[in-house]
Amino acid sequence: MRQNASPHPLSSRAHLHCVVLGGGISTDGRRWVACRKGFLLSVRGLSRVFRGKFLALLGAAREKGELRFEGRQAGLAACREWRRLMAGVRAKKWVVYAKPPFGGPVQVLKYLARYTHRVAISNSRLISLEGGEAAFRWKDYAHGNRQGQ
Fold it and tell me: What is the pLDDT along the chain (149 residues), one digit of tens a residue?
């Protein structure tokens, strides 16, 4: 998808929603062990760990041939371009927004449903679909709600 006319195909901001458990199964597999009150890791620590794990798994998927680079991202198939992108991504500060634990499974499902049961890009924002690329209008909230395409 073409989001903007930035110099690099993946330079736009992205975000990801994850639900992370606040504990785990005991080593003997018989009981749940909750983390201490609050969070399992600090926000800064979680940000660094998540970035490291995510990028390691992404690199492993690329090496196994599990990633496809098409259209404007086709250049990322070349090792040099991939390394350049990864160096830039590693250098950026990743921010994890951690929320207190949900009340239970019903609250988790309600939270996830807000993201899984809505349209990512409404028809009114679509401009064109040509050659397998979609162009759409977007709003830059970081710069005074400036419209872009």
Answer: 333 333 334 445 566 767 767 777 889 999 888 777 766 677 788 888 888 999 999 999 999 999 988 888 888 888 899 999 999 888 888 877 777 666 777 887 887 777 776 666 777 888 888 887 888 887 777 667 666 65
Show me where the domains of the chain are located. Answer: 23-120, 121-149
How far is 58 from 17, CA to CA, in rounded Å?
17
Q: Please tell me the distance from the alpha carbon of residue 53 to that of residue 105, in angstroms, as a whole number.
A: 26
Q: Which two tokens stand for residue 149?
A: 């395409």
pTM of the model: 0.55
Residues in contact with 123: Cβ distance below 8 Å, sequence separation at least 6, in sequence order: none
